[in-house]
Amino acid sequence: MTLRELHDRTVDVLITLVIARHLGHGRRLEFYLALVALLSSIILFWHPAGAARSHAMAELFWQGLGNYLFVPPLVVAAVSMYGLWANVRDWPLSRPARFLGAAFGLWIWFVYAAKLYVLGNIDTFGFSFSILAAFFGEVGVMFMVAANLPRPGARGNMGV
Predict the structure, then answer these.
(1) What is the pTM of this model?
(2) Taking a C-beta distance cutoff of 8 angstroms, is the pair 69, 44 a contact?
(3) I want to staple 134 with a disulfide (CB 3.0 to 4.6 A). Which of 81, 109, 143, 144 is the partner?
């Protein structure tokens, strides 16, 4: 065993013991976050003017980007869903897709929460949900991907 392989195995074991023990290693959270992104995208596609009423998105809407606000969450949903399905089916590139989907989702939630914070709207449901989704959801998914959990092709339903 090379030093690099020893390092990689040690990191995998530490992440598995420290992080996975507390967060679990299911696919359900990842699926819910991708579903939230997909639903957000659908809503913004069918009702782009709704972004004008959002404290975090109004500025982008009034700059003429309202018709394109559905694209980032759609990308997150597509990449995350592929990564999740590829993990279930043991297809290639599941880990990079899952990690990229979670990282891009984290970026969206972070920007949304930061915008609400700057505007002084930290007492809103949107701010609370953004913090929970970003830091407990997307970061948790990224740690699970780093630990290669669940193992690609692992048997069980979406919650296992």
Answers:
(1) 0.79
(2) yes
(3) 109
Amino acid making up residue 155: R
Average pLDDT score, the chain: 85
DSSP 5-26: HHHHHHHHHHHIIIIIHHH---
Distance CA 121, CA 4 (A): 47
For residues 13 and 133, give the distance between their C-alpha atoms in angstroms, rounded to a whole number.
26
DSSP state, residue 153: T
Alpha carbon 10 to its chain centroid, in Å, reads: 26
Q: Using omega within 30 degrees of 0 as the cis cutoff, is the peptide bond preceding 72 cis?
A: no
Q: Pick the closest to residue 76 from 33, 115, 110 (CA basis).
A: 33
Cis peptide before 92 (omega within 30 of 0): no
What residue spans of the chain are helical by DSSP H? 3-15, 21-23, 28-46, 58-60, 71-89, 94-118, 125-131, 139-146
pLDDT digits (tens, 9 = 90+) for 46-74: 999 999 998 889 999 999 999 999 999 99
* Angle separating helix axes 71-89 and 28-46, nearest 10 degrees: 150
Domain ranges of the chain: 3-146
The amino acid at 38: L
